Amino acid sequence: MNSVKCSMRWLAVAVAGALAMGTQVVSAAAYPEKPVEMVVAGSAGGGLDTVGRAIDTALRETKLFPENFVIKNVGGAGGNVARSQVNLKKGDGHVLYVESNRIYVNRIVGTTKLTHRDVTPVARLITEYIAWVVRADSPYKTPKDVFDKLKQDTDSVVFGVGTVPSNDQMNILRPIMAAGIDPKKIKVVAFKSGGDLMIQLLGGHVPVISTGLSEAMEQVKAGKVRVIAVSAPNALPGELAQVPTWRSMGIDVAILHWRGVFAPPGISPEVLAYWNKTFGQMVKTDAWKKQLALYGWFDAYADSATFAKDLDAEEKTYTEILTELGMAKGLKK
After folding, report:
1. Whole-number mean pLDDT of the chain?
2. What is this structure's pTM?
3. Is the four-CA dihedral 6, 8, 11, 16 of positive or negative sign?
4. Which residues contact residue 91 at a Cβ distance below 8 angstroms, ignoring those fewer than 6 apart?
5. What is the pLDDT of residues 239-262, one digit of tens each?
6. Residues 51-80: b if buried by 16+ CB within 10 A, e if exposed
7. What is the mean pLDDT of residues 9-37?
8. Closest C-alpha to 301, from 129, 127, 130
């Protein structure tokens, strides 16, 4: 009798275990089980919002994602408010988060304690490139002309950017450091926005600006400005093929002004694998390529593992430069 009871207990345990395993398999296979909230770390109509809505459009058109996105714009504090909200949703696989390299820069400069390791990198999707732009009548034909002038007098050239710290700023400092010039002696002036920046250049108030390539193209086509360098790792296609990259000039600098997708910390491996597969498929579709062409973006896809590795490398570079400039306030004890 005791042996029968024992056998029954083992049978009950086995059945319960099988049911539990079955439930896990079904749960993983059923993802996503409901709409996914897409937190955009910026206001509606901004750059990050545009990327979020482009993802939504491409995935709907290709039917790669069977559910809907609920886009939630969370601006404020340079993305820190959105990051804090996502960080608190630990393990929630039904939340995605669109952000830029502020995700590690903000901790370095001391506006937050959170960084990319406090969320889950999912995919880097697109990039813009940063350009050195001068007026059409500028005496500077190449970056070497600028370097030569700075070596004579570091006060002789003032650079304009949209904000600091930023990739625009790094696109000035990193090449200058590679040319053997002290970055601490370089004058970089921040203006309110890309539009204000171009006005300052055209008005002759600054001789060189570092700005998004797409923001300069209208004036390039109008014949009012010239692009003398671009931060792309390789030569760009089409009408931009003749614009030199830093690497083509022997300067080992490439800067991606990327936008990527993150998730809360602690999401399951199954959910991360789902998005690796889904985004990996999406970036190959005509629907996504249409979005790239529409907004002047370049493909910069990296899966979750590659993205995380690249984020660590970028953070290291930014830390070194901002520390040298005395701007790494978040790292001071």
Report:
1. 91
2. 0.86
3. negative
4. 264, 265, 266, 267, 268
5. 889 999 999 999 999 999 999 999
6. bbbbbbbbbeebebbeeebebebbbeebbb
7. 58
8. 127
Which residue segments constitute the domains of the chain, with CATH numbers given?
Answer: 33-127+257-331 (3.40.190.150), 130-249 (3.40.190.10)
The type of residue at 158 is V
In three state form, how does the secondary structure of the chain look?
Answer: CHHHHHHHHHHHHHHHHHHHHHHHHHHHHHCCCCCEEEEECCCCCCHHHHHHHHHHHHHHHHCCCCCCEEEEECCCHHHHHHHHHHHCCCCCCCEEEEECCHHHHHHHHCCCCCCHHHCEEEEEEEEECEEEEEECCCCCCCHHHHHHHHHHCCCCCEEEECCCCCHHHHHHHHHHHHCCCCHHHCEEEECCCHHHHHHHHHCCCCCEEEEEHHHHHHHHHCCCEEEEEECCCCCCCHHHCCCCECHHHCCCCCCCEEEEEEECCCCCHHHHHHHHHHHHHHCCCHHHHHHHHHHCCEEEEECHHHHHHHHHHHHHHHHHHHHHCCCCHHHCC
Q: Which amino acid is at 64?
A: L
Residue at token pair 């509606």: 44
Query: Locate tokens 């931009």: which residue?
Result: 240
